[in-house]
Amino acid sequence: MTDAFFTSGQRRSTGLLLAGAAVILTTLPASAQNTGMVLMRKVIESRLDVALAPDPSVQKPPSIPNPADPTSPEYFSWNVTRWTQSAGSCGSAGTETRDVACRNTAGLVAPDSRCAGNGSGPKPIGSRPATITATCVHSWQADEWPTPAGSCGEVVQRREVACLRSDGAPSDDCNPSTRPSGERTVYDVSGCGFG
What is the pTM assigned to this prediction? Predict the structure, then answer.
């Protein structure tokens, strides 16, 4: 161990102890010097234990939470819920709202200033205009198959198939597994000259 681990008083008393032990050891017969070395080592170890023990009179400084560390209980960020729409008919003008709150990592609500001042950015909006879609029904709409065109033999027919909301606007929310076919092969005899 280096002297950095001892106070000046501990270094002085340990140094005197070692110096005194060395003088005593040299005056002992060779057979007793071995036993003396063991005793001296025990004395030194006990002195090191005392020197290295924490001083109860010195208080450890309190840890300062880092508000930029997401694991810190003092870290605050904006917490937002999912958007919910106001009531109304499909396709009508309405609003969407959501809860916006400043919370710490434990989920406790805090004043908005705690989030606004720590780099979390401005407070997210809690309301916005929206077209009401929550009440819309989404379904597949398919055109009629075309009438035969006077061919004779196999004919590939095609028709438009689209997913529409109940207000007639296009949608992506129809179930793909229920989509009607947009193409089929038929045998057209209208142009075969039978009859």
Answer: 0.45
